[in-house]
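# nightly structure sweep
# worker-07 picked up a monomer target from the shared queue
# config: single-sequence mode, recycle default, output format = structure tokens
# input follows
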Amino acid sequence: MMSAASASANQELRETADDAVAVVGLSCRLPGAATAEEFWRLLRDGRDALSEPPADRADLLASGQRFRGGFLEHVDRFDPDFFGISPREAATTDPQQRLALELAWEALEDAGLLPGTLRDSRTGVFFGAIWDDYAKLAHDGGPDAANNATLAGVSRGVIANRVSYALGLQGPSLVVDSGQSSSLVAVHLACESLLKGETGVALAGGVSLNLLPDGFLLGEKFGALSPEGRAYTFDERANGYVRGEGGGVVVLKTLRQAVADGDPIRCVIRGGAVNNDGSGPSLTAPSAAGQEAVLRDAYQRAGVDPAEVRYVELHGTGTPAGDPVEAAALGAVLGGERRAAGGPLLVGSVKTNIGHLEGAAGIAGLIKTALCLEHGTLVPSLNYRTPNPRIPLEDLRIEVNGTVRQLGEQLGEPLDGPERRPVVAGVSSFGMGGTNCHLVLASWIPDTPATPSAPAGDPGTPLPVLVSGRTPDALRAQAGKLADHLAAHPDQALPDVAYSLTATRSRFEHRAVVLASGRAGLVGELARLADGGSVGRGA
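# output follows
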């Protein structure tokens, strides 16, 4: 049952439910963060995950160049059996396809959706991707290295199709390449597909892996890479972007459907817009007029007054050419709309934490913003010390957020109670060839029970806790992860955990049930199972 406070707070969003989309699940694999929870800790702690390539990146290290960026660990690792792929086919499959499979599955689990229940449904898959490093490696191996799975395995267009095939999804399935705006454009297209009714559920996001030195060398020749390997977004030291890699996926439903299904809503996408700069000084030079236009279109279509926007996740590459243009457009459309008694528009860039994920940059910014809205907390943008002299922040009514703060506090708005209103934020992503995208997000005030919840203590009677995996090793790994999770989250009630594992997780061939009435006993039994022991009864 919804409390009066949350009902009042969400009323405006409920009235536009037919025109809005809910983010009901998400997953990510980003530099320094293998999960969304780890990503949130990295953001909240104000850390960056930039480094030189890991030791297992032979092709990058063999170039003799020193590349600094955001890297994933162990991109060569993959469990093909889990997705019904033979080891031989897996070896010819682009790691970007493999990463997309893993992220899609994890996002559905986060949403509480059993992947098997979506088979033969109108579930759409929309991915942004722009690089073909693995295809180049395959071509370098010559014809003798190819087999009958290579053509599909190295095709960028198959990234989304691979997910649709593995899960049996029959909705639209496509890959978007609009340059660096690709993954945010993919989310925009997914939202439109949902609102048109051609898709019932959508998986949207992007993947990008930097397997070869080519992208680094081309960026350097283009004159856009930071020599220091650090993004100084909107700072006077801004001297280029830093390459990053990884990916993310969001699970989307129309807001009306998500509310009807009782889904946990992480945030709401009110609307968005995509355009192109058109003619300008050069093909790759950003246009303030083009960016202004996409911002105005996005807020008009979302039905949101620009004065209501509290935060914008910048494209924010930290380049001398891009930052001033983006700031000017924001100031023209959003800065001038600030309330007379209110504070400036807060902005920041996730690229200062993890680098520029290029084809997956937009989804990284969207997931960061969704987490901020869900937690009601704005995280710091890093490496900001002195304003870029070409960006008159005070005149533009813009402020780079460099601290952890509660969203809404800059205007003295109530953070709780019946007067609390959803916080509105924007996410921008711009392609090198001028394809701009901006999405308008809003927080969702969780429904609160009318009566206090039971404390998260131990239940009075034993509870069956189910763990499963496709192989014995996978079963043990899952038991270990669950033990670590329970130890790290003492606030989670054991009945809720037991229910979720039974009702919202797929049941695989190898299973174990731990019967436990206490948290300590359950954690101990799970740890014993993870170490290869048999299942007993937790105390």
